[in-house]
């Protein structure tokens, strides 16, 4: 290290100027040309020092940021300091991000701008990556929440929906959802290339318990970077498993990931995903997929239980259905637990987002409670018959809000005087209408009104969703006709008004028989 100059301030300042790790650039305030620069500034731009001096800012500042230079000149002329982050260019034209701080001054009797610059490309890139990670994490959580709500809203398994939602968070070329029947994996849904679709339905036979143990890997995901790697025993096992009749699963593919479906410690199936690129699936992908398959496994168990319940006696059917429905409510509670888990970190970063998450948490819990009350009431028909209809409609509204995150306004007027049978029908008609809204309407607002007056009861369910053409109902859709039949059973009329893009209104009108009109 060179000794510091003694007793000569000019030489001392020159020495400091030359050894600074940050770049220093002196520009002529009128022409913009570089009058002086220290070695650090020249090195940052990959110029020899004499080559950098004399350059105009347009030679080393990116075209998109050159206008900032003019702003800084005006600031310096006004006696103000200036600072900012802009993109500079190296001699070869490659960009890098610098942090600039400076002020006006004089150099050899001429007005100038004196700037210090520091390369912050690494820091800026890290900040961008962190912001992107936050965005990706929020997106993934939202998708997982949506999947959880979708699976919780029905007892019927929707395997295609599972594969579609999976592709939103994990890119794959093709995928298949399997259920395990003894030692055979039966494909119940596929997504991907045409040969795979044309092969449906198909199954994969596991040759003994050893193959089962190898494939399901202690209930943990398996990732294979290259399915054609000769020295990889897992890849070799997979090729053997998919040989001959199911080789289309690997044809043209390079990487593979297998996620087991496990419910209550029992393997019930799995999801296989393939991609045309090598080593496509990451550990993060595996963790996301495992979270989704945990939800899918519960939905699959619920579906199986529901099918069994339809074949047994009434009492046994109710008992099994009660357990199944209880599991469904757990989906909403699971979603609430996910929000609660990330809430402290979210609150520390951005309290506004934290407040929104708290609102979602309240909605999910309130919806789960409403679902549970409604499900328990349905298992005990006398509860439906004896409960005020207004209270039942509010309960249905809370449950739907928990499922689709849309405000449901329920307005009631007058005292419910409906006979028990009619009350149950009104409840079922409202329930079916709200279920249709959840499945098809995609509204931003739903209103339910109940008016009991002068011997009549009128219930109106209105949404501002996508609507439909009531004259063009597809064949095989019997929902509206079944609702009309229900209404006729109690002497009520049902009117459905809808247009594409203008929402839907369901109106149920009932008049009490003459002998009971005096009650109102």
The termini sit apart by 103 Å
- Cα shape: flat
Q: Could you describe the largest sheet, including whether it forms a barrel?
A: 6 strands, antiparallel
Number of DSSP-assigned strands: 16
Helix- and strand-based class? alpha+beta
Radius of gyration: 34 Å
Q: Largest beta sheet: what is the strand line-up?
A: 8-7-6-11-10-9
Number of helices: 17
Give helix % range.
40-55%
Which range does the strand content fall in? 15-25%
Mean pLDDT comes to 81
Instruction: Return residue spans where pLDDT drops below 50 for at least 5 consecutive residues.
Output: 516-520
Structure, explained:
This protein is of the alpha+beta class and 520 residues long. 48% of the residues lie in helices and 23% in strands. The chain contains 17 helices and 16 strands. Helix 6 packs antiparallel against helix 7. The radius of gyration is 34 Å and the shape is flat.
């Amino acid at each position: 290290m060179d000794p510091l100059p003694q007793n000569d301030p000019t030489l001392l300042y020159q020495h400091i100027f030359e050894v600074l790790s940050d770049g220093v650039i002196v520009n002529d305030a009128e022409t913009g040309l570089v009058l002086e620069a220290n070695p650090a500034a020249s090195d940052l731009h990959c110029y020899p020092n004499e080559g950098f001096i004399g350059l105009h800012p347009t030679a080393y500042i990116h075209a998109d940021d050159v206008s900032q230079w003019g702003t800084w000149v005006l600031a310096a002329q006004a006696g103000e300091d200036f600072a900012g982050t802009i993109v500079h260019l190296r001699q070869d034209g490659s960009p890098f991000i610098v942090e600039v701080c400076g002020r006006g001054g004089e150099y050899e009797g001429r007005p100038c701008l004196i700037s210090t610059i520091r390369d912050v490309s690494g820091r800026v890139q890290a900040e961008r990556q962190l912001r992107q990670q936050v965005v990706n994490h929020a997106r993934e959580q939202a998708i997982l929440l949506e999947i959880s709500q979708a699976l919780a809203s029905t007892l019927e398994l929707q395997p295609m929906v599972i594969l579609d939602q999976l592709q939103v968070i994990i890119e794959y070329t093709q995928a298949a959802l399997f259920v395990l029947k003894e030692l055979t994996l039966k494909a119940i849904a596929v997504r991907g290339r045409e040969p795979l679709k044309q092969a449906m339905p198909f199954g994969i036979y596991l040759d003994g318990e050893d193959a089962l143990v190898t494939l399901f890997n202690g209930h943990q995901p398996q990732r294979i970077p290259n399915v054609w790697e000769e020295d990889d025993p897992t890849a070799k096992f997979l090729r053997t498993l998919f040989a001959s009749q199911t080789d289309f699963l690997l044809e043209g593919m390079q990487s593979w990931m297998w996620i087991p479906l496990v419910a209550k410690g029992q393997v019930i199936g799995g999801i296989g995903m393939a991609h045309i690129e090598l080593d496509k699936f990451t550990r993060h992908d595996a963790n996301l997929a495992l979270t989704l398959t945990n939800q899918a496994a519960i939905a699959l168990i619920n579906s199986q239980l529901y099918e069994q319940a339809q074949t047994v006696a009434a009492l046994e059917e109710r008992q099994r259905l009660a357990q199944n429905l209880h599991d469904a409510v757990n989906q909403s509670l699971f979603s609430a637990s996910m929000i609660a888990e990330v809430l402290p970190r979210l609150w520390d970063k951005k309290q506004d987002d934290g407040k929104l998450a708290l609102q979602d948490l309240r909605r999910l819990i309130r919806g789960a409670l409403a679902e549970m009350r409604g499900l328990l009431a349905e298992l005990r028909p006398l509860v439906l018959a004896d409960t005020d209809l207004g209270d039942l409609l509010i309960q249905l509204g809370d449950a739907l809000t928990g499922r689709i995150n849309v405000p449901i306004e329920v307005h009631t007027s007058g005292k419910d005087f409906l006979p028990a049978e009619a009350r149950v029908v009104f409840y079922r008609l409202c329930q079916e209408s709200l279920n249709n809204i959840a499945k098809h309407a995609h509204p931003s607002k739903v209103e339910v009104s109940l008016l009991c007056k002068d011997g009549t009861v009128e219930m109106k369910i209105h949404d501002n969703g996508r609507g439909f053409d009531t004259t063009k109902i597809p064949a095989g859709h019997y929902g509206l006709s079944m609702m009309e039949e229900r209404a006729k059973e109690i002497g009520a009329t049902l009117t459905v008004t809808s247009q594409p893009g203008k929402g839907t209104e369901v109106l149920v009108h009932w008049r009490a028989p003459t002998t009971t009109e005096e009650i109102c």
